[in-house]
């Protein structure tokens, strides 16, 4: 009865308390969304089991278990950084991509760049030439740029098509576009380790998903087997994208606006005949 009376006599909940609980709830919810479907989900379950075991060892005379867990907890922080480094990096990147920060960051790409990429992707798909084009947004891709061959050239569909021609020195790897410039080609990208995607996705598609998991970049993938264009963003992939759909999505994702229904540049490019 005394405990019940003490519970009723607790101080009233203020608006600051409600806000405090709301912020913590949102943080927990976003954290669970980030680790869903990844290796971190299993690790989080294992960590929760260890915490429950620690609580049980305190309630019951399990001194050896309690001693072991207490000593392991000393290194838990370092172990978490090592085991969850990719997920921590993804979480911080996700936070930096929030609308609040995006409002202050201007777009690094222009309409001309979007049109050139779309034209090159359509022509490469038409001739079943594989390619991987990555467009940088707010988060820099310098680490990946330095892994390839630096170019620093103007963006044009002729250059993109030439780079990805079979047998060309730079056709393997990814082409990265930064601030309306082709920064580098033949770049190495991280492969996604997620098991939620189809098994028929090749290395090129998994690299496209991987770089969008590590950053806010947009990746355009052309399959040489199927001759289709795919669009990867935010750790997801949209397959069999039509040229018009690609224009709309690039305008929405890169320029943060509705896609332009025009396409004169595309029509002109498609009339130029086969790719050399």
Task: Give a brief rundown of this model.
The protein has helices spanning 2-8, 15-35, 39-59, 63-73, 76-83, 85-96, 99-102, 111-126, 142-145, 157-163, 203-214, 243-253, 264-270, and strands spanning 131-135, 149-154, 174-178, 181-187, 218-222, 229-233, 236-238. With 276 residues, the chain is α+β, with helices and mostly antiparallel strands. The chain folds into 2 domains: 2-83, no CATH class; 111-270, YojJ-like (1 (3-Layer(aba) Sandwich), CATH 3.40.1700.10.
CATH class of the largest domain: Alpha Beta
The succession of helices and strands, N to C, reads HHHHHHHHEHEHEEHEEEHH
* pLDDT < 50 runs, ≥5 residues: 102-107, 259-276
Query: Which second-level CATH architecture of the largest domain applies?
Result: 3-Layer(aba) Sandwich
Main structural class:
alpha+beta
Query: What's the main sheet like?
Result: 7 strands, mixed
Strand order of the largest sheet: 2-4-3-1-5-6-7
**CATH topology tier name of the largest domain:** YojJ-like (1
pLDDT averaged over residues: 79
Strand share of the residues? 5-15%
What is the terminal separation in angstroms?
87 Å
How would you sum up the global shape? elongated
Radius of gyration: 25 Å
* Helix share, percent: 40-55%
- Please tally the β strands and state the result: 7
Number of helices: 13
User: Please, what is the CATH homologous superfamily of the largest domain?
Assistant: DNA integrity scanning protein, DisA, N-terminal domain
Number of domains: 2
């Amino acid at each position: 009865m005394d405990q019940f009376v003490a519970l009723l006599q607790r101080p009233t909940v203020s608006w600051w308390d409600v806000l405090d609980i709301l912020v913590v709830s949102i943080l927990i919810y976003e954290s669970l969304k980030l680790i869903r479907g990844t290796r971190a989900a299993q690790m989080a379950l294992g960590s929760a089991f260890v915490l429950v075991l620690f609580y049980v060892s305190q309630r019951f005379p399990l001194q050896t278990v309690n001693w072991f867990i207490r000593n392991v907890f000393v290194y838990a922080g370092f172990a978490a950084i090592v085991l969850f480094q990719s997920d921590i990096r993804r979480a911080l990147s996700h936070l930096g991509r929030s609308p609040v920060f995006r409002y202050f960051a201007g777009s690094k790409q222009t309409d001309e760049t979007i049109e050139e990429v779309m034209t090159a992707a359509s022509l490469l798909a038409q001739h079943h030439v594989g390619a991987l084009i990555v467009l940088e947004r707010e988060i820099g891709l310098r680490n990946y740029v330095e892994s390839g061959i630096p170019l620093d050239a103007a963006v044009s569909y002729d250059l993109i098509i030439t780079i990805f021609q079979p047998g060309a020195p730079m056709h393997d790897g990814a082409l990265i576009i930064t601030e309306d410039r082709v920064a580098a080609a033949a770049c190495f990208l991280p492969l996604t380790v997620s098991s939620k995607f189809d098994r028929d996705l090749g290395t090129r598609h998994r690299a496209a998903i991987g770089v969008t998991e590590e950053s806010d970049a947009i990746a355009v993938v052309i399959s040489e087997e199927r001759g289709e264009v795919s669009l990867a963003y935010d750790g997801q992939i949209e397959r069999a994208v039509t040229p018009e759909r690609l224009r709309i999505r690039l305008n929405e994702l890169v320029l943060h606006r509705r896609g332009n229904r025009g396409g004169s540049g595309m029509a002109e490019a498609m009339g130029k005949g086969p790719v050399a």
